[in-house]
Specification:
Shape: globular
Number of strands: 4
Distance between the termini: 41 Å
């Protein structure tokens, strides 16, 4: 008689991911009371398909965009990111290359930073820190940021620090 089936790859991946994230997620931030251990801050993993649902097309949906694999809720900047707004092309996807190049060209609206110049990479870091992290709450991470290409957890992953926001709990 055979024993119980071994856990599936997805279950193992999620278990490893939870272990990798736990230390950073449960750490108390200066001046904040830590949340109870059984209810740590939510960290949501977004596939490309899931992120695409938050491109500002529906009035009652939040508007999300990702830069460097970090998903931000930019709904408060609806006049910039909402349907028909100047930067709507950045929403619903990881538009890291476009942000680095200050480009809305569809070919640049990708996570791929291959071939960017040092100046473009510096611009990316500056906009990431001084615009997105400073103004918009983090709601999750893209699968590419958290997982390796083979689906295994990226053990070097560390959640972004954003002490001026509480992580948005919409789940």
């Amino acid at each position: 008689m055979a024993g119980p089936a071994p856990p599936g790859r997805a279950a193992l991946t999620m278990a490893a991911l939870a272990l990798a994230l736990a230390p950073g997620l449960l750490a108390a931030r200066a001046g904040h009371t830590p949340r109870p251990a059984e209810r740590g801050p939510p960290v949501r993993l977004f596939t490309e398909e899931e992120l695409a649902r938050y491109a500002g097309a529906e009035e009652d949906q939040p508007i999300y965009l990702a830069v460097k694999g970090v998903v931000f809720d930019v709904t408060s900047g609806k006049e910039f990111y909402g349907q028909g707004a100047p930067y709507n092309a950045l929403t619903g996807k990881d538009a890291t290359r476009g942000v680095a190049k200050m480009s809305l060209d569809p070919a640049d609206l990708t996570h791929d930073i291959t071939g960017l110049t040092d100046k473009e990479l510096e611009a990316l870091d500056e906009v990431f820190t001084k615009v997105y992290k400073a103004k918009y709450p983090i709601v999750g991470y893209t699968a590419r940021r958290i997982l390796n290409e083979d689906g295994s957890p990226n053990l070097d992953f560390k959640p972004e620090d954003q002490p001026h926001f509480d992580i948005k709990d919409e789940f």
